[in-house]
Design a protein that fits this description.
mainly alpha
Length: 42
């Protein structure tokens, strides 16, 4: 997931009153920057 798409998803969830859970079971270094950014919203 791209960082921009991750931010859009987080914003959309917050607008709907949802909370976020960020996790990574099998990820590479490519998925860590978006996950760290979204973690600020969780």
């Amino acid at each position: 997931m791209s960082t921009l798409k991750a931010l859009r998803t987080a914003r959309c969830a917050q607008q709907r009153g949802l909370t976020l859970l960020v996790g990574c079971m099998v990820g590479t270094s490519l998925v860590m920057p978006p996950a760290m950014l979204i973690g600020a919203f969780a």
